Amino acid sequence: MFVTIEGVEGAGKSTQIQMLLQRLVRLGVPALVSKEPGGTPLGQELRSLLLAPHLSGEKWCPESELLLFYADRAQHIASVIRPALESGRLILVDRFDDSTRAYQGAQGISEATMDKLGEVVLGRLRPHLTLILDMDPALSLERVRARNAAAGNAFKETRFDNETLDFHTRVRKRFLAIAQRDPQRVTLVPADRTPEEVHEAIWAHLSPLLRSSGHPVE
Ligand SMILES: Nc1ncnc2c1ncn2[C@@H]1O[C@H](COP(=O)(O)OP(=O)(O)OP(=O)(O)O)[C@@H](O)[C@H]1O
Ligand SMILES: [Mg+2]
What we know:
five-stranded parallel beta sheet, 5 strands, binds adenosine-5'-triphosphate, binds magnesium ion
């Protein structure tokens, strides 16, 4: 099973993926966790190119950035996602195609362009379940600031952390539109609650899918 977790910066994706993984491991469900960009060694190199503040001051034009995200995704699908699915494991991915749709869409790339690249890179691959952690980015960015301050240099700020609140609000709206457009696959999870409450809401969506594919859920 292929599950993706999406949402604005600081909504709690990484926190929830870890909580979910622990629960799945306790239940004996064969699961693994990955992320985009950077779910492969080459992808990690792309991740630093994409997310690190650039020393030269030069910015990616939106099209170059888009192609690098899709290059990372193609590599990730070929060497991590497909093998995991073929070996019958559950793979949880921290950001996937909906993040590209939301962020690069907010930067002005058209849906038609992303449809074309998606056709090349994803083919017919779609997550079985996508959980969008939804909250006001004004609050989620506060979490990011607190996290980065507490971690010293362990967490580097990304270029996207420095985008304006207006940009992140547009990203959130795009995530909401994705959830409306594809309700079969996508579930919105209110994320401005305690980690435990968010986890239980996620579990309520995931556990019926696990049960129907023959996994123990309690
Ligand atoms: N429900 C919550 N309530 C309060 N704080 C939270 C909650 N979930 C996560 N946090 C804290 O907020 C910060 C951001 O969480 P996390 O790193 O999981 O978000 P993220 O969505 O993965 O962010 P990014 O988009 O930057 O990867 C962390 O310090 C985390 O401990
Ligand atoms: Mg994260």
